[in-house]
Amino acid sequence: MDQIKKDKLVRDCVAIALKAGREILSVEVDNMDLERKVDGTPVTRADRASHECITSGLSKLGPGFDLLSEEGDIRAFLERGSQVFWLVDPLDGTREFVKGLGEYTVNIALVEHGSPVLGVVYAPATSICWYGTTGSGAYRFEKDSAPERIFPVDRKEPKNAVVSRSHLSDRTRRFLELNGITETISRGSSIKICAVAEGSSDIYPRHGPTCIWDTAAGTAVARSGGCRVVDGEGADLNYDPAGGIRREMFIVFPEGMKYREVS
Predict the structure, then answer these.
(1) Number of domains in the chain
(2) In sequence order, which ranges of the chain are alpha helices (DSSP H)?
(3) Is omega for the bond preceding 63 within 30 degrees of 0, making it cis?
(4) Domain-embedded: residue 88
């Protein structure tokens, strides 16, 4: 896809994400219709409302890309075997949303042959939006402010880290110790990936499973801004659903930064 098309699509996706965020905020905390999926993860009326909003918005953009959403028909999507598709998490951080914390996001990405080439991450509770396309950089804006280009820190080794509020593992603790990192910030959802992309945190180690819709939009933002998002072997994290929906771990860090992985 050419750069002009990608840049137009990401602007359209920003508008869709903001609208989905309004749908989420309209759900009263005491009337969210909380349920549990088969795997035990929570889902609410806000998740479903955001999904419908995003699905409707993306369907109007063309040129008819397939769509994989956490709240959609995953099995039917996998049977189609699409290589270029929208990858969506309508409400990333449902646990934080249910607890009344503002650390949840709307995630929209476009994936081409296993790589997210554009992404939007919007945090409705704070009205902060991050977006980016490969080739045009990554940006951040808040409410009605003008977008500003963002960059990760320029360090050879990490001094601090952002870590998961809900899923901090023992292996991540060992990673922090191995790399001499004593300063950490706990966050929820894709906000953690964007924290590295914008330079407010040095590195984000995640030693635990995630699904591809959890991280695709943040990965697009991070890579567009000058970061790498890699798996346990140091290879770029792949988003081809043929390899499964889950990824066992990943690290987000600025290009050129060195770190030591836990054996």
Answers:
(1) 2
(2) 3-25, 45-59, 74-80, 94-98, 170-178, 191-197, 212-225
(3) yes
(4) yes
